[in-house]
Fold:
Amino acid sequence: MGTDSDTGAEGLLPPDPDLPRLHDRQYAVRAFRLSDEEFLVRGAVRDQLPGGLYDRSDADPLTVHHMVIDLTIAFATFEIRRAAVVFESHPHPDCPRIAPHYENLVGLSIARGFTHKVRELFGGPNGCSHTTALLQAMAPTVVQIGWADYMEHKRDQPVSLTPRPSTSAERRVMLAYNINSCHLWAEDGELVAAVDRGERADPPEPLMRRLRERGVDVDAWLAEHW
Structure:
């Protein structure tokens, strides 16, 4: 499997079996800080067919779909402030006509209910199935960005100076984008119960593994940074 330095599908998937390849779909999502108030999330989806499928004399892969979405999002509310869709490659001449429709994302907040709203606005004949699938794949990235932004701002502060919600209700607000997002963050699960009790969630396991690989004193690091 791939390492943290790998990029692209070849770094994410196990080695190919010794079988003819039929199709290759790749998703890519990256985020960038624009300012203290906004960040940019850029996503792309690409479908490639193996060479020779349509024309046996052409050995190069053929890209049939390649769509790119740019979303400018507010840190404080996760509200989409700007949205742009570009069709880089598409099977039919009229495919790009739907791109301006995705400007209706502006004003939506990527929070609970976002996936339902996306299906409502862009599902079926109201959108491009590949662009909409990409949009739904991008949404969970925003939750990760919120956490990354929090960690970046608290990184140089001692734990004792890091503001912590004092009540269960305040802690629930802070975790609004996590609760019921998956089985681990189930509202009636142990992880949410621990947060309700005022306990800090455990650090990400990849971080703990990296600290141990680097020979860092984990207990001392946690006392200083977590």
About this structure: Confidence is low (pLDDT under 50) at residues 158-165.
